[in-house]
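look at this fold:
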Amino acid sequence: MTNSDPLNSARSPMREHNRPLEGLRVLEFGSLIAGPFATRIMAEFGAEVIKVERPGAGDPLRGWRYVDPRTETSLWWALQSRNKKLVTLNVGHPDGLDLAKRLAAESDILVENFKPGTLEKLGLGWEVLHELNPRLILVRVSGYGQDGPYKGRPGFANIGEAMGGIRYITGEPDRPPVRAGISLGDSLASLYAVIGALMAVHARDVQGRNEGQVVDVALYEAVFGMMESMVPEFDVAGIVRERTGAALPGITPSNSYCSGDGSYVAIGGNSDAIFKRLMKVIGHPELGEDPRYETNADRTEHAEELDDLIEDWTRQHTADEVFHILEEAEVPVGPIYSVTDIMEDPQYHARRMFLDAEIEGIGLVKMPGLIPKLSKTPGEIEWYGGSLGQHNEEVYGGLLGLSSDELERLYGEGVL
C-alpha cells in the first residue's frame, strides 16, 4: 500500500527495524480531528491504536468534506484512520462500560477529546481509570482545558484560533481577521497531545516513575503557544501586534511580491548578509551598506519602502526568472503553492510525500506521506480507514477473549 523507500517503507516480513512506538497500545475515545489526528500519528509510527466509535453512527468525520459516492465515505476518513483498529462500543450501556474499562486496563495511553466532564459522566474519570490501570496515561484534548471558568464551553478549532491570538493578526490591516482554510487549532492541539503523551511515557518508563498521569491539552493554548514574543512585548512595551497582510512584522524584508506574470513569490531577505545580497541582485547594492538598513530593527523602520523596491524589481521578471536569479544569489525564495502545484513539485516527490493508497471500492488514491522522517525506525502505513467495527472480533475476541456467543449477544443488545 505504500512505496518501499527506506524512509516510508511498507510493512514486510523483511523489515529491518521496528517502528519506534511499537509496543504501545493506545485507546482512542475521540471523533473528528484533534484527538484522532494525534492517534493517527502514533499509529503511523507503530503504536497499536484501537479507535472506539458509537455503533450505527461512527465518527462524523466519515461524512466530512468530499464523500466519494462509490463508498459513501470521505477520503479524509481514510487518511485520518490509517493503521487504526476500528471497534464499535456503546459506553452508555453497562456492558459497554465494562468493556471500555477492560480495554483501558490493557492500554498504555487513552486519548479523548470530549467536552470536559463527559468521561466522568460515562464512569471513566481519571480516578476510575487510574485505579484500574495505574500505568495508564490519559490524554485529554478540549477547547479550554479541564479547569478554569470556560472549561464547560464547547470548543472547536475556529474558537481556539480566535482566542489563541492567531486570528487577530491574520489578514490585511484594513480588513476583518481571516482564518486559514484548515482546522489549524485542532492540528496544533494534536501535535501537543502527541508530545505530551510521549513525555509521559518517558517519565513512566525511562525515568522509572512507573505510573501514568493526565496530559491536558486545550485548543486555545495550543494556538497561543505559537504566538512568539507577543506577551512580553505587550507587557514591557505595550505593543499590540496587528494584521500586516503577507508581511512578517518586525522581520524585514519578508513578504510576498507580485512577479511580472501576475503570480506571487515569497522572499525572505531579513538576515543582514542575505539583505545585502538581495539589494545587489535588485540593482541597489548601495542600500546593503546604508546604515539606515544595517540591522533588522533598522530595516523594519523602512519596511514599506523596501517592499516597494523589491516588488518594483519582481514585476520586471517572471516568477521563474525571480526564482532562478534569487536562488543563484542564495536568497530564500519560493512559490505560493496550490494543491495542484504541490502534486507536481519534484521536492515533494523526492521526499516521498505522496503514497499510493489502495482504498476499497475506489482503487489507488494519493495520500500524504509520513512526517517526520526517521532514518532507523521509520513509520509506515499498513491500511487506510475501514468500515465501522471492522476489528471488533480481533479486539474483543483476541485481546479481551470474548467468545462468539458473547459477541453475538452484545451485537444483539446494541452494545457493539
Notes: The chain has two domains: 25-226+346-412, 254-258+264-335.
